[in-house]
Amino acid sequence: MTWSPIGVYHPGTSPLHRMRPGAKLLSLIVLAVALMLLHNAWATAAALALMIALIVVARLLFVDFMRTIRGFAIVAVLLFAFNTWQRGVEEAFTVVGSLIALIIASTIVTQTTRSDDMVATITWALTPLTPLGVNPERIALAFSLTLRAIPTLFEIAHETRAAARARGLERNLRAYATPLVIRSVLHARLLGEALEARGIDEPAARD
Predict the structure, then answer these.
(1) Which among 135, 122, 136, 144 has a CA at the least distance from the CA of 191?
(2) Rounded distance between C-alpha atoms, residue 71 and residue 139, angstroms
(3) Which of 127, 131, 128, 129 is nearest to 207 (CA)?
(4) pTM
(5) How close are the terminal C-alpha atoms of the chain, in Å?
(6) CA 81, 84, 89: angle at the middle one, nearest 5?
(7) ∠ Cα 189 194 199 (to 5°)
(8) How far is Cα 95 from Cα 36, in angstroms, rounded to an integer?
(9) What is the number of alpha carbons within 13 Å of residue 159 lying toward its C-beta?
């Protein structure tokens, strides 16, 4: 299974898997608002503890979340150092810990929700905006294609790095970057053609 920083769906029968996608997305919004309003170390620690409990309840793999957090490690370290310098360790923990809690929460949502269910929920949520000219199906399809493209791009990066390593060129930036850019652009072009074939970039029909 290809790893993705946003998480890949893991089939399961846990309470989180059975929870409606809309409820999970709403819970994610509530968590973000709560952390922003409370903004203290205790709330951040409680959120992190809750995320660990949810991972256990959903029977997800901790290694996936460690890889996700590692992907944001450089930003987290720099952000922690800056906030420690400016406002102290407690503030740094609150800021960085809240960010990590939200990243984990987002990953839990994607790992326990089928992409088709997510798209259906987005379509339903945007339907009231139809009189304003919003096309829910178009936006939902674009979201679905983009969501599915992210793991593919990471797979392309992994394959390109493996190919460069097999040729003994793992330290040659050009040997890695050039084919990566070419394959990524090709994939983006194919994605664009798929969107065009489904009428994503066509103006809405006029009555």
Answers:
(1) 144
(2) 28
(3) 131
(4) 0.69
(5) 45
(6) 120
(7) 120
(8) 9
(9) 12
Q: For residue 31, what are the contacts with CB-CB under 8 A and spacing of at least 6?
A: 47, 101, 102, 105
- Alpha-carbon separation of residue 162 from 1, 150, 171, 173, 183 (angstroms): 16, 19, 12, 13, 14
Q: Cite the DSSP H helix spans in the chain.
A: 15-18, 21-38, 41-57, 62-71, 73-87, 89-111, 115-126, 136-166, 173-197
Residue type, 143: F
Dihedral sign (CA 181, 182, 185, 187): negative
Q: Which of 117-131, 139-153, 191-205 has the lowest mean pLDDT?
A: 191-205
Query: Which range is most confident: 55-69, 79-93, 174-188?
Result: 79-93
Closest to 129 in 3D by CA, of 137, 117, 120: 137
Name the residue with higher pLDDT: 194 or 10: 10
Single-letter amino acid, residue 5: P
Residue 207's pLDDT band, with cuts at 50, 70 and 90, is very low
What CA–CA distance (Å, rounded) separates 120 from 53? 28
- Asked if residue 170 lies in contact with residue 164, where contact means CB atoms within 8 angstroms, the answer is yes
Residue 153, pLDDT score: 61
